[in-house]
Amino acid sequence: MDVTSAFVEAFSLITRLDPGFLAIVGLSLKVTLTAVVLAALIGLPLGAWLAMARFPGRSALVITINALMGLPPVVAGLIVFLLLSRSGPLGSWGLLFTPTAMVIAQTLLVLPIVVSLTRATLEELWAEYRDHLTSLGLTGLRAIPTLLWDGRFALATGLLAGFGRASAEVGAVLMVGGNIAHYTRTMTTTIALETSKGDLPLALGLGIVLMTLTLAINAAAYAASRVGARYAG
User: Fold this and answer.
1) pLDDT tens digits, residue range 10-66?
2) CATH number for the domain harbouring residue 164
3) Using CA atoms, how far apart are residues 122 and 49, in angstroms rounded to an integer?
4) Which residues 6+ apart lie within 8 Å of 129 measured at CB?
5) DSSP state for residue 69 in the 8-state scheme
6) Alpha-carbon gap, residue 167 to 70, rounded angstroms
């Protein structure tokens, strides 16, 4: 099949809402959104605590978390695989090669981004508003809700960045999900598989959706940063 025909068939898959095509897109969005929500629930409080707390070894912990922002996806996948494999500590749960395992792997990738950005944002806000908040009796952990609200636009940008990283990930979800048809097949793993098989229409169709999603995420992040700058001004 030539490239032009492949593009025509790809757009046809999208416009006619092919059930198999939609199932792959739906699973990808479900896994990624769940991972980002879990990362936010864990990372926002942890990052806020790290911003306000002072204890021995804090600098080393901050450096470690910042380094984990660049954690290779295959390493994250390997860690989750070892934990969930039959010989691993969580092997009895039977989660390997399931969507849940994919969520865990993606959460592991997004979590350092959320923690690091939350810590940096709240540290900056605390330095700026420390005197004002202290005069209101908001010190230590009591200042965290106010700081989180003040930094909501920057934090939203970080969550969108995490979503973008997770949605474009291949290695980790392939290792722990297995790319099982109609069960753990996502957009990125399907693109890799179908391209190697020569099924260009499906790979191109999913690629178009993934690119559109990436553009939408970047547009939302840009809008959030502009709104945040306007409020700050």
Assistant:
1) 888 888 888 888 999 999 999 999 999 999 999 999 999 998 888 898 999 999 999
2) 1.10.3720.10
3) 9
4) 147, 150
5) T
6) 16
> The domain containing residue 173 runs over which residues?
3-228
Region for residue 169 given its phi and psi (left: phi exceeds 0; alpha: psi -120 to 50; beta: otherwise): beta
Structure tokens at 13: 């898959």
Q: Is residue 61 part of a domain?
A: yes
- Whole-prediction pTM: 0.87
Number of domains into which the chain is organized: 1
Tell me, yes or no, whether 154 lies in a domain: yes
Residue % of the chain over a pLDDT of 90: 34
In a domain, 233, yes or no: no
- State how far the Cα of 68 lies from the Cα of 111, in Å rounded to an integer: 9
CA distances from 216 to 30, 75, 220 (A): 17, 28, 6
Nearest to 118 by CA among 150, 140, 142: 150
The candidate with the shortest Cα–Cα distance to 124, out of 63, 51, 47, is 51
What is the Cα–Cα distance from 140 to 202, expressed in whole angstroms? Answer: 53
